[in-house]
Structures are given as C-alpha cells and as structure tokens.
Design brief:
Helix content is 45%, strand content 31%. The protein is α+β, with helices and mostly antiparallel strands. The protein has a four-stranded antiparallel sheet with strand order 1-2-3-4.
Length: 134
Amino acid sequence: MWNKQKNRERGVTLVEVIICAALFSILLFAFINLINSSLDISVKAGDITLAVLLAQEKMEELLATPYADLPAEGLSIAAPLNFGCGLQYYCSITVDMIEFDGYMLHGLLLEVAVLSEGGEQIAGFTSFRREEYP
C-alpha cells in the first residue's frame, strides 16, 4: 500500500498536463493578441505621421505660391497621393473675408486635408492669405 502512494507522487498525471497545456495556450493567445494590437496601432501611427507631413508639405507649397498665381475665383482639388498607401489629399482655395482687429481683410482661405481610403480626414491645415496690394 505504501509503495502505491509513493509511485503516484512521483509522476505527473494526464489531467495535470492537460490543465497546464490549456493555461499555457490561453496565455500564449493573449500575448499574440497583444502583439497584433500593438502592431496595428504602430502602423496607424505611421499613417497619421505620413498624412500630417504630406498635408504640411502641400500647405507649404500653397503658401510659397505668389498670391497673384493662386486662382482668385477659388479651387477645389481631390487627388490620390502616389505613395501606394491609399491616402488622398484634398485642397480647397476659397475667396473669403475675415475680421481682424476691427478690419475686414479680403483674401483666400487655403485648406489642405489628407483623407484615408474611407474618406475620413486624418490630417488637415487651414490658412488665410491676405490679398496683396501693389
């Protein structure tokens, strides 16, 4: 009788192995999901950074363009960006007036936005170019 008890305590039963394997697979599944989620967040952050840089670059192009060369009647452009990332930019130039320190300023409202594949705005900039007088 004493020998049977001693033999049982030495080994691991099949039930213990199955429970250990189940716990390990649950932990492994949770860890893989954590890595997958962090990878998705990292890719999305990269897309947002790219969108901000592209929108900023497009706005800088508009601001560097002489006022006389900008279309005075307004303009609206939507075009895909050729980076293979599915982003597209939207550019709008609108004739507008704003009040500044009690004065009405005439000029152009410049808007640039970068949109995702679904049309959701990721990044955008707005600026106002005051009409230049000779």
